[in-house]
Amino acid sequence: MRKSAIVVGLGAFLVTLGLLLKFYAFPRLAVIPYDQNTGQTLTDPKAKFFDADTLKFKQEPITTTATVVGNKDAAKKYGRNSVMINYWQYTDNNGTPPPMSATTASYALDRNTGKALNWAGSTLNGRPVDFQNAYIIKLPFGLQKGKSYPYFDTTLGKPVQLNYAGTEKIMGMETYKYTASVPDTTYMKFEAPGFLFGLGKESPGQNADRTYSNDYTIWADPITGVFMKMSQHQKQTFKIPGRPAVNILDTTSTMTEATVKKNVDEYKSKGFQLNALKAAPWALIPLGLILLIGGLILALITGNGRRGRRRAES
Fold first, then answer.
1. Distance CA 62, CA 43 (A)
2. If both were cysteines, with which of 80, 89, 238, 307 could 246 make a disulfide (CB 3.0 to 4.6 Å apart)?
3. pLDDT tens, 82-113?
């Protein structure tokens, strides 16, 4: 009887442990940290662009730096299992102010899903914006092969669809590859120098359409959804009626090798730990049930055997 009690007890322990890991531990560990603080660097050694500092067309390196910082105090005030993010991105060719372009944003994310929340304080370049429940800095935990995800494009001010494009190893780590294409789109009006359109050096500025296109390629960790590597082939032009379009930016900017290595080194181990935590209940719960049932059967057999011996002795 003692053996069966031990087996039943062990089975109950394993089932309880498996349920705790599945419904308590994993949901509390698979979250975006409150104190999120990361930096990503992308470069293009041969970018083509119009340099507003010198009013000349150039082909030389440009660097884009993106910084993500969590605001823990704001997250606690807002609640709803959220993390509040402040985001800065700068692109420049020479490190001298002003940068070629700059983007700032503030938004709230669901810590478990990674999706943008409908927060009244959401802003993009100082203006209120609806991030439309899209993904911004990462994709969800536990990516699904073949599934597409909405990714917020800060230039367009709306989501684009990231489409699954297979698996690929990045520095020895398996990732899911996603692509998205933004067709040539007018996204703002811009006062452009008239000489760009062949109108002469003394011509007045032109109220031009500024257009934008982009081909994204993103390699994400399938466990955490974090971007291990990103590349963007971006083009921008000025357009006015009756004149050829003027290309003002043509760049393929890709995360630096150092940035990619940092991402892989950090999330390869985190992904392994989360995956093990996610898989453990599938082993513990069935094993615990087997032991529970086996212990009960053993108890019945042992009990029947003892009753049989008592009858024989009487």
1. 6
2. 238
3. 899 999 999 999 777 788 899 999 999 998 89
* pLDDT the model gives residue 226: 93
For residue 173, what are the β-bridge partners?
Answer: 170
DSSP β-ladder status, 206-220 and 227-239:
antiparallel
Three-class secondary structure of residue 283 per DSSP: helix
Report whether 166 contacts 143 (CB < 8 A): no
Where would I find the beta strands (DSSP E) of 147-221? 149-153, 158-170, 173-192, 206-220
H/E run at residue 307: helix 257-313
Cis amide linkage into residue 150, ω under 30° from 0: no
Q: How far apart are CA 169 and CA 175, in angstroms?
A: 6
pLDDT digits (tens, 9 = 90+) for 120-159: 999 999 999 999 999 999 999 989 999 999 999 999 999 9
Task: Taking residues 60-83, report their average pLDDT.
Answer: 87
Cα separation, 166 vs 145, whole angstroms: 8
pTM score over 0.90 = no
Cβ proximity of 22 and 279 under 8 Å: no
Q: What is the mean pLDDT of residues 177-197?
A: 94
Q: Is 259 helix (H, G, I), strand (E, B) or coil?
A: helix
Residue 229 near residue 170 (C-beta atoms within 8 A):
yes
Residue 23 DSSP label:
I
Total Cβ atoms within 10 A of residue 313: 6
